Structures are given as C-alpha cells and as structure tokens.
Amino acid sequence: xxxxxxxxxxxxxxxxxxxxxxxxxxxxxxxxxxxxxxxxxxxxxxxxxxxxxxxxxxxxxxxxxxxxxxxxxxxxxxxxxxxxxxxxxxxxxxxxxxxxxxxxxxxxxxxxxxxxxxxxxxxxxxxxxxxxxxxxxxxxxxxxxxxxxxxxxxxxxxxxxxxxxxxxxxxxxxxxxxxxxxxxxxxxxxxxxxxxxxxxxxxxxxxxxxxxxxxxxxxxxxxxxxxxxxxxxxxxxxxxxxxxxxxxxxxxxxxxxxxxxxxxxxxxxxx
Length: 271
Prior knowledge:
Strand content: 5-15%
CATH architecture of one domain: 2-Layer Sandwich
Number of strands: 4
CATH topology of one domain: Alpha-Beta Plaits
Oligomer: single chain
CATH superfamily of one domain: Transposase IS200-like
Radius of gyration: 18 Å
C-alpha cells in the first residue's frame, strides 16, 4: 500500500449520540402494511440532515463509502447482506420502495427510472463501498438517502434498536482519471479479502489461490458480475456506463498490481 494513505474511521461529532431524525410517519411508512412506502418527502427529511461540502457533478464518477456509527457492524449475517444488496437495486429508481417488494424475488421488480449508474460495490462487516456516476438529474444523493434510510429502518426493526446506524454524511471521493478509476475498481473488488485475511493491504496476499477462490464465491460484491458467470444480481450495476475497459482486471495478479502500484492520487481514506 502506498505510504502516507490515511485511515480515518471518525464520524463527524455532530452525529454521535444523535437519534435518527425520522418522524413517526416515516417509520410507519417502512413497516406498516397500510403505509408501506418511502415517500419523496421522507427521503428529503433524511437527507436534509446530511452536510455535503461539494455537489456531485453530472457525468462524473465517485467512490462512495460509509460505515456504521461507532465502528459497529451493520451486516450481522447473510440475510442483512442480502437485504442491502436487494435495496441497491430497488432504491436506485424513482418509484417508492414498497416494503413487500423487499421480500422474495426483488430483482425483477419495476423500480422506475434509474437514479444513478452504479458500477461496482462490495459489502463488508461494518462498511460498504460503491462506485457510481452522477446523472443529469443529480439524483445520486437521493439514491443514497433512500438506500440508507430503508436499510437503517430494516436493521433497527430487526434488532430492536433505535438511533443512527450509518455515519452521516456518507463519504465520497471524485474519481478524476483512468488510473484512479482502475485503482478504485481494484480496491472495491479486493476489499472483501479483509474477511479472510486481515492485513493483506499492508503485508500482501499470503495465499493467492485461497484469495481467488474466496472472491469467486463471495456473493455480496459486483466482482462476480464482471469476472464470473451471469447471475440475477448483475441487474444491480450498469456496466455500459464504464468509462474504461477493465477486462484486464479479470486477472487477480493484474488487479492486485493495480491496487499496489503507486501513482499520484488525492489523499484517500482506506477502509
């Protein structure tokens, strides 16, 4: 890993110990059979509490990432990971999320017009990574608000808890060149290796065959949608929005080299 890269797990002080600013009507809208929608108004309520220091620009690409408050795990089992993965698809549309849609088969549901081009993702234990492109309607932020609200409500209901689940605002880094894009694509797809080999970023991958086998079996990442057999989850990402050819990254050695190869890039938070 390039020296000088900073790891910053701190949440803004303003969100520590603050309960989720959600009116009772929104809570009912997510969990009541009679009010089973996340309305546009509810999305704006959630996002109005987020402080963004820059605006997302149309046709620009961004590395999006976030983690649980107090470094807590936000995915406790595969059911949680499956729910978040389903929401990556359902929340990325202009139709309200109907709670019953999240149950059973979800990837064949009509979600409406796509809000943002999602190019890659990976789910860890206490955080997640994405790569996304903003569109002309500037709906990347509303997608993130819709996704975060729906998942937080599901998680809190399931675990009988209340309060903020995810750090706010979510993190975002502008991807300004092809080298940076290849590096981020490599990093996002290699990141799940932390689950079986913590410290690989600093020490290198000890067992490459084991690492390759794990990446090819880990369902909660878009790695398989680029470098594996076709699957229903492939609908979550928009491959046609890729700005560069990434076929060479199919080689594990090439992907690892892209991640390790130093180049001039902005200060990054490596999670």
